[in-house]
Amino acid sequence: MRVPGPVWFLVLSGTAYLETARGVTALAAGDAVWVDARTAFVVDGDAELALGDLRAVVAAGPVPSPLVVRGFADRHPGVAELVRSCPLDGACRGSVFAEGYGTLIGAAMTDSFNDQGAPDEDGDPLVARVLDAVLADPAQKWSVESLAGLVHLSRSALSARFQKAVGRSPVRMLREVRMGEARRLLSEPGLPVEAVAVRCGYGSIAAFSRAFAADHGLSPQAWRTAVLQEGRRTANPIPLSSAQTAPSTRVAATP
């Protein structure tokens, strides 16, 4: 789906990947992002997002685009709870409410930006390069050594850069990417679980099932059955809309 900018979104669950001209940024549940109208971006991954249109809001001061606030839900639990609980219908409908809501979100983002300080404007191009490679081919038999080799770093140096850039180790990030791909493939009812395991880089269905169950509390087949029975879930958060990036929706905007 395409959304107008400037736009704000909160990751409600799962993992999202924000791609701009500056590279790829991994986002976890609770992270929030503001993007201005001039920034082309794509959000991909397996996340459920709450989207807010902030066209009526003027920033209190200069902020970068994209502005990523880690742990927004922990910093501003009241705003996050309002996002989760109040859709734009019934008592929550109306432009006055939506504008006030946007002002509240904008103030919280600006406050968080001032607290955490200006981010590294250049990001980490080496981390972005590794993420691009993993996202392009999750089935590859990646190891920390092979990932580090892509950018000519030692294992320890790569791990340190990953922790600084995305708050996760390379191994954890690889697993999250593979689990996101697994959920996408399992949403296709005709694909055998064995084939899903191979496409996600696991050498055996047993290893895949253990990893999947550890992250989801269900075996791959049980998860597939539950999802197919439930049908596609729809998030119900805030003005103006919501989105799930899994299994096939990409949120994008161009200036």
Question: Can you walk through the features of this model?
Answer:
The protein is α+β, with helices and mostly antiparallel strands and 255 residues long. 44% of the residues lie in helices and 16% in strands. Residues 87-99, 118-122 and 232-250 have low confidence and may be disordered. It contains ten helices and nine strands. The chain has two domains: 7-121 and 235-253, no CATH class; 125-230, Arc Repressor Mutant, subunit A, CATH 1.10.10. A hairpin with a 2-residue loop joins strand 2 (16-20) and strand 3. The longest helix is centred in the middle third of the chain and has 22 residues, at 95-116. Helix 5 (144-150) packs across helix 6 (155-166).
Topology:
Elements: E1 7-13, E2 16-20, E3 23-27, E4 32-35, E5 41-45, E6 48-53, E7 67-69, H1 72-75, H2 77-85, H3 95-116, H4 125-136, H5 144-150, H6 155-166, H7 170-186, H8 193-199, H9 205-216, H10 220-230, E8 241-244, E9 251-253
Antiparallel strand pairs: 1-4, 1-6, 2-3, 2-5, 4-7, 5-9, 6-8
Helix pairs in contact: 5-6, 7-8, 8-9
